[in-house]
């Protein structure tokens, strides 16, 4: 007779022990019995005698329907395999300089994957000189983990994988330590922007200064030049021109008598013609 498989228990006539501790189908302890006596009791019930603990002294045997036991055992194994294969690994890729809109869209998808019971591999893809700034990728991964910590937790923390940086999330709420670490990183990110603000202020200042200067300059020019120039021209020109015209009629009386006679003689024939 072929030896039973090491994974299968001995049943009925394959049991080698002379005495066994017998257990009824409902779990009741029937005490220590000889193996032939135990086989008789199991046969009267129409069931099998199964050795469930061969290392005990004496071995423990239970009365049961071995065929049904094998079927239930195979069903449990099948369910275990189904659950194991049901866990899928999704992947979501980000870029170090991803925009806010794309980040929100991708992170919502990660949240959906975790809600469906799938693992998610989050990948940051670096290109060119971006490899010199791995902190950008780590910051994005921390933001993703913090955003989805109510449906997922970090299984594999951020690490470099060639030119990429990866992190693996699994369904389940994040641990307290992970949430506290995410809160610390969030505070650090909030404190970081003031360092970058001075860079933006100088760029805004030159734009504002020329605008104020150009706005002020036309006001000063229009108030000084137009007001002074017209006033000077209007007051000086009228005062000089009458004075220049007035001396002209006073000069003829000072002319000599010869000139006067010439004008008179010239005027006399004109009057005669009329």
Task: Report what the structure shows.
With 274 residues, the protein is an alpha/beta fold. Among the domains are: 12-83, Ubiquitin-like (UB roll), CATH 3.10.20; 87-194, Translation Initiation Factor IF3 (2-Layer Sandwich). It is 55% helix and 19% strand. A four-stranded mixed sheet has the order 2-1-4-3. Strand 5 (89-94), helix 3 and strand 6 (119-125) form a beta-alpha-beta unit. Helix 4 (134-147) crosses helix 5 (176-191). The chain starts with 18 loop residues before the first strand and ends with a helix.
Strand order of the largest sheet: 2-1-4-3
Q: What is the H/E string? A: EEHEEHEHEHEEHHHH
Rg calculated over all Cα atoms: 55 Å
Looking at this structure, what is the CATH superfamily of the domain at 87-194? Answer: Translation initiation factor 3 (IF-3), C-terminal domain
Give the helix/strand class.
alpha/beta
